[in-house]
Amino acid sequence: MASLPPSCMRCMLVVALLVMAMVTRPAAAKLLFDQVELTWGEYHSFFYMDGDEDTLALCLDEANGSGFASKESYLFGRFDIDIKLVANNSAGTVTTLYLMPEDVPWEYHDEVDLEFLGNVTGEPYTLHTNVLANGKGGREQQFRLWFDPTEDFHTYSIVWNPKHITILVDGVPIRDYKNDKPGKKPFPTWQHMRLHGTIWNADQWATQGGRIKTDWTQAPFFAYYRNLRVTPCVPSAGVPWCGAEPAESTRFEEGMDAAALQRSRDKHLLYDYCRDLKRYKDTELPKECTQG
Ligand SMILES: *[C@@H]1O[C@H](CO)[C@@H](O)[C@H](O)[C@H]1NC(C)=O
Ligand SMILES: *[C@@H]1O[C@H](CO)[C@@H](O)[C@H](O)[C@H]1NC(C)=O
Ligand SMILES: *[C@@H]1O[C@H](CO)[C@@H](O)[C@H](O)[C@H]1NC(C)=O
């Protein structure tokens, strides 16, 4: 790891160094710097070169968090990115990766959400996931990561096609959310979305139910992102767009390793809305939980 500026405020220098470094890079490599734009807190986040990898350091301090979004938006695709989470005491902080459409009213709000909930030093991060469509969500699942996500970069992936949303960690599927009850279960099917990443303070609820607050003496907090690979969905021959793939086609069923998914759930699942009987004690469980 290249040495990092100790403070958020040295970002301008680093940006200048990055621009110089980019001039000498091979033209073929895609730079995160070109693929995304800073959307929030840009005054204290920065890009830097770590060897060959242009890396984005998102910063959280007491005044603000920060965030980025992909410049392009996509209607179905696969998104892979490498993230290194906040080291040491990250309690109260949340680092995110999510897909979301541009400013739409809440009744059209779609989202595929990954939130990494920080913890005190030595205690494990939690990966919280959710899917929303047309303003409806509540499909939370949480996982414990099986490695220390603050020590090194790991690849987090969202595969979004008309039939499935699959979340993978280092290529291992941990969640498969199916579009098998059209109209009965939220599933984003029609809007372009951009990929976002953010870091923010959520110490009201994030760590051990909100009991542990952000220790601002440890600030600024950094989360690092790099190596974004976007693979837009390419429609089958003769099909105008991926959403028009014939219902009988098995194309979007391919490549799912069901055994690996089951192993991940058995080992790493912490919370599943479908098993939360307390939450649904006065109402029925969502239909997909009880009907196959
Ligand atoms: C924090 O972010 C908000 C929203 O982007 C912005 O209005 C505000 O000026 C930022 N605060 C600082 C200290 O820059
Ligand atoms: C985390 O703690 C280790 C050991 O105390 C220290 O060397 C390192 O600089 C800390 N990292 C950050 C980002 O504060
Ligand atoms: C933090 O660590 C505690 C103790 O190991 C654990 O119970 C909790 O689930 C962890 N994660 C969060 C987000 O609080």
From TrEMBL:
Glycans are attached at residue 119. GO terms for cellular component: apoplast. Contains at least one intrachain disulfide bond essential for its enzymatic activity. Residues 1-29 form the signal peptide. Residues 1-225 form the GH16 domain. It is found in: Secreted, Cell wall; Secreted, Extracellular space, Apoplast. Keywords: Apoplast, Cell wall, Cell wall biogenesis/degradation, Disulfide bond, Glycoprotein, Glycosidase, Hydrolase, Secreted, Signal, Transferase. Its main location: secreted. The keyword Cell wall biogenesis/degradation applies. Its EC number is 2.4.1.207. It comes from the Eukaryota. GO terms for biological process: cell wall biogenesis; cell wall organization; xyloglucan metabolic process. The active site is at residues 111, 115. It holds the Pfam family Glyco_hydro_16. GO terms for molecular function: hydrolase activity, hydrolyzing O-glycosyl compounds; xyloglucan:xyloglucosyl transferase activity. Belongs to the glycosyl hydrolase 16 family. Catalyzes xyloglucan endohydrolysis (XEH) and/or endotransglycosylation (XET). Cleaves and religates xyloglucan polymers, an essential constituent of the primary cell wall, and thereby participates in cell wall construction of growing tissues. This is Xyloglucan endotransglucosylase/hydrolase.
